[in-house]
Automatic annotation (TrEMBL):
Protein name: M23 family peptidase
Family matches, as PANTHER family: PEPTIDASE-RELATED, SLL1488 PROTEIN
Superkingdom in the source lineage: Bacteria
Residue ranges of every copy of the M23ase beta-sheet core domain listed in the record: 77-187
CDD domains: M23_peptidase
Amino acid sequence: MELNSKQIATPKNRLAASIAVEHSQTPKTKPSVELNSKKIARANNWLAASFPVEHFQSYTSAFGYRRSATGGSNLEFHSGLDIAAPQGSYIRNWWTGTVIKVGDRNACGSYIVIQSGEWEHTYCHMEGQVETVDNRRYLVDRTGGIQIAEGQQLSAGMRIGRVGMTGRTTGPHVHWGLKYAKQYVDPAMVLREMFSQQQITRSSSQGWTSQQSQVIIQESKAVGDSGY
């Protein structure tokens, strides 16, 4: 699936602006998290990675500290990037890996956690529910034709679920979280590096094929914090 965008690759775009948090309220640990994210994102080859949602609309809440989504002035750590899409849109696996957990009974709603080497990627607020068959747990979305089991091997770009409104959410979106070596990484920085590497490779046209790159990052026409 190839999508078209210039926004992620541009440092001064609105997504970058949405990641910024008021420094007067930001804990001192945030800069180290950002620097770590940049270092890790730049150290990987992303040509085989997939953008995690179809029918993308906008990035609605960035990684980092934000005001509580349930109201009030308290800050909370938002451990991923919220990507809005129409309810029922398919979610695609970002990177080849193994399902290590499925669940459906917390703020994340119905979710899947996938391990890809040192990377751990989480997808929240999906359609469906967890069912157990022969002592094996599955995330099941019959309407969408989805049945994903713990321990299952998944390829990059594979449809693994659909955008829903399960758990703590005020609108349809997927909360996409990333960890590297058990440390949180800003997904927006990974998307920028994905886009940059894909653009460079396409421009050089040296052995690049559409099959090698599952996605080219799509432009967001609206970026903000909707309190998801």
